[in-house]
Amino acid sequence: MNEGYILAIDQGTTGSTVLVFDGAGEVCGRAGAEFPQYYPRPGWVEHDPEELWTVTLKVVTEALQQAGAAPQEVRAIGIANQRETALLWDRRSGMPVAPAVVWQDRRTARLCDALKQEGLEPLWQQKTGLLIDPYFSATKVHWLLENIDGLRSRVAAGEIAFGTVDSWLVWKLTGGRCHVTDYSNASRTLLYNIHRLDWDDDILARLDIPRHMLPAVKPSSCVYGETDPQVFFGHRVPIAGIAGDQQAALFGQACYRRGLAKNTYGTGSFLLMNIGRQPVASRQRLLTTIAWRIGDEPVEYALEGSIFITGAAIQWLRDGLGLIAGAADSEQLAASLDGNDDVYFVPALTGLGAPHWDPYARGLIIGLTRGTGRAHLARAALESIAYQTRDVVEAMSRESGIQLRELRADGGAVANHFLMQFQADLLGVPVEVPVITETTALGAACLAGLAVGFWPSREELADRWRMARRFEPKMTPAQREALYARWRQAVERSLGWAGAGEA
């Protein structure tokens, strides 16, 4: 077994988690902590970049301590990150010049509408694989440059750097020596041409975003630089793996062959299917994204369906309504009912993502009667996660011509057996949960380990993937189709609720 450790940072939307892996790919240290979310206006979601960094460094320390690993024993660091979140900082001081605008933020909905009215979406989708939507980084950067006093002149003077969260963490870890990102994160900005593998000058010009603000784009598995000893406990350690969290999870789930797919159940849910080395132009309003690039190998692509609110719906039941004390309560409540009694919850709390892409959709609970209780709402919230996943699977099958044979699942919600069984029932295919469910961190570790020779090949990594539990579908086709038809009726009623002037 290889000596030493790989440290993986999984920097997510609501918190940071760090895992320490040994040469056998086993987790020997783990730590995590949440950080505050800020909602200054309806539809706005922000983070404080310094809080994000402080929490991440704190959990790195705790994970190493739990593993009993000295910093000098770390062979490499891998980073997986929340994608699309946009950060701007001063190159000299390393201090942020604005709050981080989070991927969930919808403040640029009207700008996106204007860009669509210009007829730009077909061309931009062909170039980037993405739709014009507030979800992506590009319009967030434009908004920050237009709305923060004095920022344009500082950008013109070359003082300001832009990056997604991976770029920010690498900048901080290296003491400001490296301004980089990887292909997977670059492909989520709506600024990157996924065919030419370069920032797109026409899109940059339309949004008035100078190219010199942007990070260098490098493979997902390579050595980007070393930690600054003043930051990383007196030692220089290679940072050798970066991927957007969902591409990292696809890698961690060993979906290395065309047609293999995974769904990560987190704050949102993200279904990705490996489509190989040739991108597919989506007609079903899915995203074509770069999955990864390993060293000098060709780029590999994925189809993706992004669902904005899944686990966040359960958080809303807990924090917004006070209906449950913890997320685990939802399983017990849902299982206490024999059925959903025709109660449906469309959690369009920040609009709807794939395959609807409606920023003006709003949350809806329908089917309420005098007999409806909190168990119905808990069950409806859990079922909504599975329904939204099927929406994406249906579109993906039409797009790729590939019928899903199984779904590999990961993320925090896989602990909810009611949800996993309902997901298998609704899809009509098995759902497989791996032994290591933190596949985002695992993917980042694998990418870093490959770059420094800690692990020799993807084949060896694939052989190590192990299944913990398999959920077989039990529902009849007639039952699943009846439930799904009612869900689609509920979705129709939620679309376009907020007028353009109110979003």
What does this structure look like?
The protein has 503 residues and is of the alpha+beta class. The chain contains 16 helices and 23 strands.
What count of helical segments does DSSP give?
16
Structural class: alpha+beta
Radius of gyration: 22 Å
Sheet having the most strands: 7 strands, mixed
Summarize this structure as a short list of keywords or feature phrases.
503 residues; seven-stranded mixed β-sheet; six-stranded mixed β-sheet; 35% helix; 22% strand
Condensed summary:
It contains 16 helices and 23 strands. With 503 residues, it is an alpha+beta fold. The radius of gyration is 22 Å and the shape is globular.
Write the layout of secondary structure elements.
Blueprint: E1 5-11, E2 15-21, E3 27-34, E4 46-47, H1 49-67, E5 74-81, E6 87-90, E7 100-101, H2 109-117, H3 121-128, H4 137-147, H5 151-156, E8 160-163, H6 165-173, E9 180-182, H7 183-186, E10 192-193, E11 198-199, H8 201-207, E12 216-218, E13 221-226, E14 238-244, H9 245-252, E15 261-265, E16 269-276, E17 287-292, E18 300-307, H10 311-320, H11 329-335, E19 344-346, E20 364-366, H12 374-400, E21 407-410, H13 417-427, E22 431-434, H14 439-451, H15 458-464, E23 467-471, H16 477-494
Parallel strand pairs: 1-5, 5-14, 9-12, 15-21, 21-22
Antiparallel strand pairs: 1-2, 2-3, 4-7, 6-8, 10-11, 13-14, 15-16, 16-18, 17-18, 19-20, 22-23
